Amino acid sequence: AMAQAALGAAGLHFDDLNKLRVLEPEVAAQTAQLREECRAFVDKTAEFQKIVGSLIELVDQLAKAAESEKMKAIGARNLLKSIAKQREAQEQQLQALIAEKKMQLERYRVEYETLCKIEADQNEFIDQFIFQK
Questions:
Q1: Rounded to the nearest 5 degrees, what angle is found at the Cα of 32, between the Cα atoms of 47 and 6?
Q2: What is the span of the domain harbouring residue 77?
Q3: CB 14 within 8 A of CB 4
Q4: Is residue 76 in a domain?
Q5: What is the pTM of this model?
Q6: Which has fewest Cβ within 10 Å: 2, 73, 82, 83?
Q7: Has residue 15 been placed in a domain?
Q8: Integer Cα distance of 38 and 28 in angstroms
Q9: CA separation (Å) from 47 to 41, 50, 55, 59, 75?
Q10: Cα gap 118→35, rounded to integer Å
């Protein structure tokens, strides 16, 4: 016991296996435990970084997919707008054509009425000419 006290004063200690140590057994045990806890902490931190990395990757992929879909939607909207404009232009052309055909129909109607009147006049003239004979 006295030898142990003298060694302890010199900063030397015996462990459970009676090996001579510079650290007290309790301090050595605490140091080993701390080392293990640190190692576990570093491992968990690395695992967390991996998880965060894969999460960031996933979010990036989703952002790219969303951007792609947005561009498709904009393209579709622009296509619909241009189709609507084409339809509008077609409709205007058809309206103009209808107006033109209506005017033509009106001219033909007037011309027909005039021809009917001429025919009636001529028939009347022929009838009078025949009855005079």
A1: 165
A2: 39-131
A3: yes
A4: yes
A5: 0.47
A6: 2
A7: no
A8: 15
A9: 10, 5, 12, 18, 42
A10: 123
Alpha carbon distance 107, 48 (integer Å): 88
Q: Which of 38, 10, 34, 35 is nearest to 24 (CA)?
A: 10
Q: What does the pLDDT look like over 54-70, one tens digit per residue?
A: 999 999 999 999 999 99
CA–CA distances in Å: residue 28 to residues 3, 23, 41, 67: 21, 6, 20, 58
Name the strand (E) or helix (H) holding 20. Answer: strand 20-21
Rounded Cα distance, 112 and 82, in Å: 44
Number of domains composing the chain: 1
Per the DSSP assignment, residues forming a β-bridge with 13 are 21
Determine the length of the chain: 133
Give the distance, in angstroms, between the CA of residue 41 and the centroid of all CA atoms in the same chain. 40
